[in-house]
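Case study.
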Amino acid sequence: MILVTGGAGFIGSHTCVELLDAGYEIAIIDNFCNSRPEVLDKIRTISGKDFKFYEADLLERDKVEQIFEENEIEAVIHFAGLKAVGESVQIPLQYYHNNITSTLILCETMAKYGCKKLVFSSSATVYGDPASVPIREDFPLHTTNPYGSTKLMIEQILRDLYVSDNEWSIALLRYFNPIGAHESGLIGENPNGIPNNLVPYVAQVAVGKLECLSVFGDDYNTHDGTGVRDFIHVVDLSRGHVKAVEKVKSTSGAHAYNLGTGTGYSVLDIVKAYEKACGRKINYKIAPRRPGDIAMCYADPEKSKKELGWQAEYDIEKMCKDSWNFTIKNS
Ligand code: NAD
Ligand code: WQD
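After joint prediction, the assembly is written out as follows.
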C-alpha cells in the first residue's frame, strides 16, 4: 500500500487517481487545511476504486503511527505542505513548522516501521533565479522566500537521511508550474480567495468572477517581454509520481528529478491559449513586475526521461481546455 500525504489537494488528488488506475492500494492522510472532503468521493468516482482515508494532521505523531500500525505501507508520496509564497513571507514560522516538522515526524515514523521509500514534492523554486535555461538538476540551489527554503531544507534533510542509512530510497521531484485538471472536470485546482497563480486567475477572469488580469511586467528579456514558465498538465505530473514510486521501489539513493515539459510559455501565450480554449476574451492590463519573480524558468526534463522513463505528453491547448472544463463545471 502507498501512503499519500496531502492526497486531497490539487496534485495529490490527481496522483491518487493515477495510482489507483495503476493498480496500487492507497491510504490518504489530509487535514483539509487547503482542500475539501468532497474530493475523496470524486477520486472514488473517477477511479471506480476505494481507499483508506485518515483525517489528521501530520504533526500529530500518534495519528501518523496509527496509519503505519494498521497498514503495510510500502512507500510514501509526501505532498502535504503549505505552498503560498507570499503567505510564507508573512507567517514564516507556520511554514517552517508545518512543512519541516511534519516531514521529520513522517520520516521518523517511516524509519520506525521499516518503510524507507519516499517520493517528495519539491519545487523548481529551489533553483532561485537560474543563470540559464533550460534548468538541469545539477544547477546551483538557492531560495528567496520561506516557502522555497522549506523545500530546499527538506531536500537537504532527506539527502542526509540517505547518507546515514543507505537503505533509504528517495525521489525529490521538482515540479515546474502544474496547471489543468482531470478531463472529467471533477477534480482540479480550486484556490480559496483571489488566486495568486496565473492560470487560476485567468480562469476566474474567463468565467466572470474577476474583472481583469494584471500581467506582472512586460519588460523582461523574453520573446514578448512577459515572464516565461514551464507549465505542465497536472495529469502528466501525477503520472511522473507513479514512475517515481516504481523507481524508489527498485533502487536506493536520494535523487532529484525535474518534472516539467521542457517548453516555456509566456504570460501572454497563456492568455491567448486560454482565450482559444474558452472562446472568450480575457481582459488584461500590464502592471508592474511582481517582487521576487524571475524572467524565465523551464526544465531540462532529460534526466526524468532517462531515469524514470517519464515525459510529459499534454500540450498547452489541452492544459487550458481541461482547466476551463473544470472551471465551468465548478463555478
Ligand atoms: P494543495 O494545497 O492543493 O495540497 C496540499 C494538501 O496537503 C492539502 O490537501 C492540505 O490540506 C494538506 N496538508 C497541508 N498541511 C498538512 C498537514 N500538516 N497535515 C495533513 N495535511 C496537510 O497543494 P498542491 O498544489 O497539491 O501541492 C502539493 C505539494 O506540491 C506541496 O508540497 C507543494 O508545496 C508542492 N508544489 C506545488 C506546486 C504548485 O504549483 N501547485 C509547485 C511545486 C511544488
Ligand atoms: C507565473 C507567471 C507571474 C499571476 C509559483 C511559485 C512556485 C511554484 C509554482 C510551488 C509569472 C505571472 C501571475 C498574475 C501574472 N509553487 N502572473 N499575473 O510564480 O512561476 O511559481 O507557483 O512550489 O514556487 O513561486 O507561478 O502562476 O504565480 O506566475 O502576470 O495574476 O505569471 O509574474 O511570470 P510562479 P505563477
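Observations recorded in class. Residues 83, 85, 123, 125, 177, 196-198, 201, 213-216, 227, 229, 267, 290, 293 surround WQD (ligand 2) (CB under 6 Å). The longest strand covers residues 117-123. We will return to this complex in the next lecture.
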